Amino acid sequence: MGDIIAMVGRMIGKQLSRWTLAWFAWALCFLIAALGLGVVGLAGPGAWSTGLALAAVHLFALGWLGMMMLGALIQFTPVLCARPVAWPGLALSALLLTGGGTAVLAAGFLSLEGWGPGQGLLAAAPVLLAAGFGLAGAMLVPTLIAAKGLAGAEGRMVVLALIALAGLWATGTVMAAALAGAGLPVSLPDAMPAHILLGAGGWLTLAAFGVSYKLFAMFLLAPETDGPLRRAVFGGAGLALGLTFGGAGLALIGRGALPLSLLAALAGAASAGLYLAETARLWRSRRRPQLEVNMRWSRAALAFLALSALLLPAAMLWGGRWAEAAIFLALAGWLSTLTLAQMVRIVSFLTWIQIFAPQIGRRPVPLVSDLTDARATGRWLGLWTAGVAGGTAALAMGHAGGFRLAALAMLLGALGLGREAWAIRRLRHLDPARRPDRLPPVILPLPFQGAPHDRPRSLRA
User: What is the pLDDT of residues 186-203, one digit of tens each?
Assistant: First the structure.
């Protein structure tokens, strides 16, 4: 019970985002759509330049990972800063604009398949995304500044990630305009590495670093220290981001950017190594002897991070299959495995806070872990990681059929974890006698409601 009380002390009395589960649900829909395109063979080894493949990549990276990360930051920035998030009413608008912009962008890539209206959508999508990102930034940045969040390693890393997000949007906007026939001097082959580094290595990875500093310490019951390792991680990440911006600038004016992008990749790989060393320190100093399922499978995500960092220089130098494997490991292995593992825990915790935290001291309450089926969660995460390993091997060998099988395994794993999140919201793993007579809705922040099958038998009409 000690870990729950510690976390409740951090979050009770702070303003929880009403729309976190909606962010997560929409992100999961994008994940399923992207994997579905991979299963039917529309994305795979050597086929990433087609319109459908680009749609799948952006549904995965921007729709799934990007929306999960924004939703998580809006939820946990109050934890990082010990104060409510600024302008909480903007969360729904940011959600709709970001999700809508992602869907419009994915549809816009169909212009590469000869669909004429797609060019107009390519032009409209960056506007919607700019509005969504801007509203999210209006919530996060003032909160970090007002709370002096930059004094902590977590806050500094999140700010750096938001800077990378701005660069990601800028490079993506110029590239989308070039694809739409705007006649810009941008060199797409040179701009692509910088765009990928800003997205996977900058925005998503740096935000994951910042959030995981806090979450890992909480879930491991480890002491939080802003020591030299964290400062070194931040310094390396800042250097990598600066070099990436330089490479992106050269590419956008039609000049070669490979040397700067390669240096950025090396700095980013070094920063990842330092982060892994810091995470190992946290693991050694933990006071929780028995790891829960989310932290056990987070170790697989960290292993994927190490592998993707090792492959990064080769990917920048030789491209092709090396690049495909490294990017896949970063997006599907490191970032997605970490996100899926922690998603189950976050949904459990938010459900516990919503339903049982007000009852502390009035009646016995279950533990957060009681809301989750750890064995089922572990099986679905195992299937996901097996799919990632198989997909990486298939990309390295250029085996399209193997990649489709791997995407199918990942799709089944994602569907299973989505079902587990639904079961948590319905308290299906609790004995009916321990459930309240009314349950909150699965996704929307509406007043408490419940279906008859969710109520204890004694309370049914």
Answer: 777 778 888 999 999 999
